[in-house]
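Quick check before the chapter quiz. The format below is the same one you will see on the exam, so make sure you can read both the input and the output lines.
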Amino acid sequence: MIGFKKVPTKLVLFVFISTVVLILLLYLDLSTDQPPPEEEVLFTEEVKTSPEDVQTQKTHTVKDGEILSIILEDFDISLNTQYKIYSLKNSSLVTDIRPGNKIIFSYLGSELESIEIEKNKLNSVFVSIEDSVTIKKLRKKAELIKSYAGGTISKSFYEDAIAAGMPDSIIMDFAYIFGWDIDFVFDIRDGDNFAVIYETPYSMGEPIQSGDILMAKFTNQGKEYVANRYIKENGDKGYFDAEGNNMQKAFLRAPLEFSYISSHFNPNRMHPVLHTIRAHNGVDYAAPRGSPVRATGSGVVEFVGVKNGCGKEIVLRHTNDYSTRYCHLNGYAKTLKRGKKVSQGDVIGFVGSTGLATGPHLHYEFKIGNKRTDPVKVKLPSAEPIPASLKEDFDILFDQNNLMLKDMEKFTNPDTSEIKDD
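Here is the expected output.
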């Protein structure tokens, strides 16, 4: 009988524990042994592309004596494109250019896209350069902006109006509107008040032409004058008072703007040159040499030339047996001649000192038939009032503008009195 050697207990125990530990280590290694993350590798390829075409513009201001063909040649416009432009029926819109017009050439890259000719701030001509060339007129949208100006006379109407921010054109229109009732040199007094609302057309943030008066007020020596604009359906414009009477008279009160009376109507005046008592049958207005002289009323030139001590003179014949005479002129309007029709306000001559005169001034006479009258004091005949059929519409417009003027006056001068409707 074969005998077995007894295995030591400690050895068995060591082997068992070692086996268990080995199994645990193998398990842990398998659970944590994950493959490393994949690395993403990107490959880029540089692709060369041509830059996008850029829009550009070139501008040219037309100079005196320039013609379109030379300008187009200077800007390297091809003969083929020029031919296409000139062959169009309305090509005269493009070729009729004036000094001061702006020509804008627009390009996409090196290719000409269009030509725009700005005739003025509002109107232009646009030439599209494509497969087929086209020409069309463009008119910018205009926005009417209302403005207010007002003040009190302390120096002269012109100086105080400028100080109040009134544009030159509005000052001239203001004086013209009230010029039939007020002599803006002789009648003006310190403390007189003026106010006006006018509208100016704007385009692209810039004024495109002079403004136009909507309503104006002038208080002269305590008497108030108000003028409201009214435009009829046919486009005729006029200024009328609260009752609808026309502010315009058949004659202006004075033939000069912003001069002063140096000698009044006087049948017993001592003549400054002859030194004898000699009737002064008119009014002398002192003004700088060359100042424009206006026709005080519409009429026909009866005489233009030199006569006696009056020097260079003009005589106008008006309707209803009225006539006016203008003496000591330096010269005449270029187109003035005997028989020519003139309109009220037209410049007919210029102040001078020809004839028996001690210095530059205008001698002005006003005759009714054969009777000489004082131009300063004569009651001037009025023009046509608002027709009865339009009076209601006019009254509504007058009230609207009057209210707006009152509000403006209160805003700028709380102490200003309101406009009286009577």
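If your answer matched, good. The longest helix spans residues 9-32.
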